[in-house]
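Notebook, bench 3.
Goal today: get a predicted structure for DUF485 domain-containing protein from Streptomyces doebereineriae so we can plan the truncation constructs. The sequence was checked against the plasmid map this morning, with no discrepancies at the termini. Length recorded as 118 residues. Pasting the sequence as submitted so the record is complete.
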Amino acid sequence: MATDAPPPSKETHKLPTTEEFTEVQESAEFGELRRSYRSFAFPLTVGFIAWYLLYVLLSNYAGDFMGTKVVGNINIALVLGLAQFLTTFLIAWWYARTAAARFDPKAEAIKSRMEGGA
């Protein structure tokens, strides 16, 4: 059975030593990458978890409110439940876009230096 896997690369990358990893981990560039990632990911994670827990709490303790009809048989619980999916996809899209623009170039530069590239 043939596969579409590319042939093995002839490029060889040097393997970084433990000391090189430690040096990069302690560098200002890596610290900035870590800070920018955390300042983006952590608030979004906390916000989404709070939004999800609000939905769960409302579902458990505010049944009358969640059962309020919006249009026809569509109630607030259904609207908020669907909004959970929407916010999940929006956060994933926003993260992918931000990572490609801000995090990946910095990470790639560090990686290529560690592997003996440019």
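The CA atoms of residues 16 and 114 lie 6 Å apart. The longest strand covers residues 69-71.
Flagging this for group meeting.
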